[in-house]
Write a structure and sequence with these properties.
With about 200 residues, the chain is mostly beta strands. Helix content is about 5%, strand content about 40%.
């Protein structure tokens, strides 16, 4: 996949909204030449962008997009038209967020075993953020953890944030897709004890 600019107009479901950096500008800028990381399981094909160590593309290999083709169902996509990504990072002044450049530290496992993919970013203050994704065969769950390493001599206070970001559809696009109205926009959670 190619790296696209995040759209200026978007919606997000965020666990910690304070001081979350805004998206990249909508005007084109030259993106750093950093290779995407692709992970495949029996269920997913997933792509992680080292810029932000963000999950930018996920295809469900066992589900078709429609009845006319054999193309897999795409859940997340980093194209400008269909932008929908999962982003994480730290709030505050530490510049360790979904706009930071991360380095791939390790990728262990195979398609048929548990895979872990670990990235790290650091800033000039001696703060490091380690992100680890875990993919398990036969599971639809993609887990991500964030670990902060403080190598400075000062205490820090930062919160992690986790957000789903997408481009909102225009009125014409809603009509084209047969969507008359949007009663809810965002994730919904269901458990055996609590409904939506």
């Amino acid at each position: 996949p190619s790296r696209s600019q995040q759209p200026a107009q978007q919606s997000a479901a965020t666990t910690a909204a304070q001081s979350v950096p805004e998206s990249a500008p909508a005007t084109p800028t030259k993106a750093p030449e950093v290779a995407f990381i692709t992970i495949s399981t029996d269920i997913f094909k997933a792509t992680i962008d080292p810029i932000g160590a963000s999950l930018v593309q996920v295809s469900l290999l066992t589900h078709k997009a429609n009845n006319e083709t054999n193309d897999p169902l795409i859940l997340l996509n980093n194209t400008t038209k269909d932008f929908f990504a999962a982003q994480t990072g730290l709030t505050g002044e530490y510049n360790l967020n979904h706009l930071s450049e991360f380095s791939l530290i390790s990728h262990t496992g195979t398609k048929n075993t548990i895979q872990t993919v670990t990235f790290e970013a650091k800033n000039d203050q001696g703060i490091r953020l380690v992100k680890t994704y875990t993919f398990t065969p036969g599971s639809y769950l993609i887990s991500v953890s964030q670990t902060v390493k403080n190598l400075s001599e000062k205490p820090i206070s930062a919160d992690g944030y986790y957000q789903l970001v997408r481009r909102e559809l225009t009125s014409d696009e809603m009509k084209e897709k047969g969507i008359e109205d949007r009663s809810h926009f965002g994730p919904a959670f269901y458990t055996s004890t609590e409904k939506f």
